[in-house]
Design brief:
The complex is a heterodimer. Chain A is an all-beta fold. Chain A is built from no helices and 11 strands. Classes of the chains: A mainly beta, B mainly beta.
Chain lengths: 120, 107
């Protein structure tokens, strides 16, 4: 059974940093693209970043480029999101989501999400 | 960047109704489109990928069509479990943008 378990969310001041983790199990983690997707309170889904399987190539939404870094440790089956220079508008539930392939095609498994609140 | 626009933003329908949601892309995305269903407090679920391929386990009353810039999600006969918010997402560019969502409510 595929499981994705996010952790690392919490309350942080504007300008601060936070690192999210997503522990994966039940599939060959290194072979699949992995995403971070966020959802602000009462709002729609916003794609944040992707790390392709195999090559590990990464891409970012313009709203987080230069501030967030996605990475993966295939030996630990864990996906990370390092978030720096956090802003109030980064407040959201952050979901880790597994793609159905090495590249993007559709995210078939999602974690339960971890809440990040950016506030003074 | 490719922008995705869904219509309508909200929709009221009755059990048994046939419902269609539209997603338009600002540039051609071939068939690199997925549809998701999300219920309050829950993570999204994948319904369809590559515009028309039904994901494993998804009921056959859901179908997707389209290519290029215009896509549709159709639910052939609404069931109680279908009242939720639906999102499209494009995978053509390196930035995987979502539509703004369509909330499907009971009439």
């Amino acid at each position: 059974e595929v499981q994705l378990l996010e952790s690392g969310g919490g309350l942080v001041q504007p300008g601060g940093s936070l690192r999210l983790s997503c522990a994966a199990s039940g599939f060959t983690f290194s072979s699949y693209a992995m995403n971070w997707v966020r959802q602000a309170p009462g709002k729609g889904l916003e794609w944040v970043s992707v790390s392709f399987g195999g090559s590990g190539t990464t891409h970012y939404a313009d709203t987080v480029k230069g501030r967030f870094t996605i990475s993966r440790d295939n030996s630990k089956n864990t996906l990370y999101l390092q978030m720096n220079s956090l802003r109030a508008e980064d407040t959201a539930i952050y979901y880790c989501a597994k793609e159905i392939d090495t590249y993007g095609l559709g995210a078939d498994q999602w974690g339960q999400g971890t809440l990040v609140i950016v506030s003074s | 960047d490719i922008q995705m626009t869904q219509s309508p933003s909200s929709l009221s329908a009755s059990l048994g109704d046939r419902v269609t949601i539209t997603c338009r892309a600002s540039h051609s995305i071939s068939n690199w489109l997925a549809w998701y269903q999300q219920k309050p407090g829950k993570a999204p679920k994948l319904l369809i990928y590559k515009a028309s391929t039904l994901h494993t386990g998804v009921p056959s009353r859901f179908s997707g069509s389209g290519s290029g810039t215009e896509f549709t999600l159709t639910i052939s006969s609404l069931q109680p479990d279908d009242f939720a918010t639906y999102y499209c997402q494009q995978y053509n560019s390196d930035l995987y943008t979502f539509g703004q969502g369509t909330k499907l409510e009971i009439k």
